[in-house]
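Ticket #4471: structure export looks truncated?
Reporter: QA, pipeline team
Priority: medium

Steps to reproduce: submit the single chain below to the structure queue and open the exported record.
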Amino acid sequence: GPDAIAAVNADFFLFTPPGVPQAAAIQGGRVIAGPSARPVVALTSTGMPWFGLLTTTGQVVAGSDTMSITTWNRPSPNGLAWYDANWGSPVDTASGTLRVLVGPGPVHRAQRVDSSGRATAIPADGGVLVLGRLAPPATRQLLERVATRAMTVQVSLIPFAPREAVGGFPVLVRDSVAVAGLETAGGANFGPVRHPRTLVGLAAGGRRLLLVTVDGRQPGYSMGMTLRESAALMRALGATEAIN
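Actual output as written to the record:
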């Protein structure tokens, strides 16, 4: 935005689907990509930074039938995902999925049930329920039954709904202490090897946000840092919380 005075690289991305952030991506309160098992740096509604894990909670209710929603704007191979227009592109056409195109709410009606390989466009005022190809057959039958009736879709974030959020991996410092297991985080070629790094930290009792870049892969000039060295750098800069 026009008020930005600094910017750094953030998060990692998936190859399937291509380009999707690995962790939650939230912009102006809109969930672009939903939470995963990876942590985020977030801003609360009052603008305070927060480091931690977000999770999705939700359900589809139709009569006496209830189904849990496991992901929001993120694939769920074993469960049920909810996609709204903030996802942007058509829903992935992975074979074996069951997709239910639903109209506007708050009480939704299924417009189409599709198990073909065709892409499913997301309506601006509705959404698409996608059951993963590895979900149990009983769950698939339940979704087919739910799709024949009026339904409500409820989805939210825990522990709160951030104003902004972007992901990273892993958390380096928690309560002023370097996190255990940094040598093995991300595999043998990630945590213990010196790489260029992008780091975010919280200092001065939450009043200062540190954006730090570490150059690397230039022998004799800049070698980068391991995750353990990155944690030590952030602690030296006064960070009580930090993430790679």
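Status: closed, not a bug. The export was complete when the record was re-opened. Leaving a note from the reviewer for reference: The mean pLDDT is 93.
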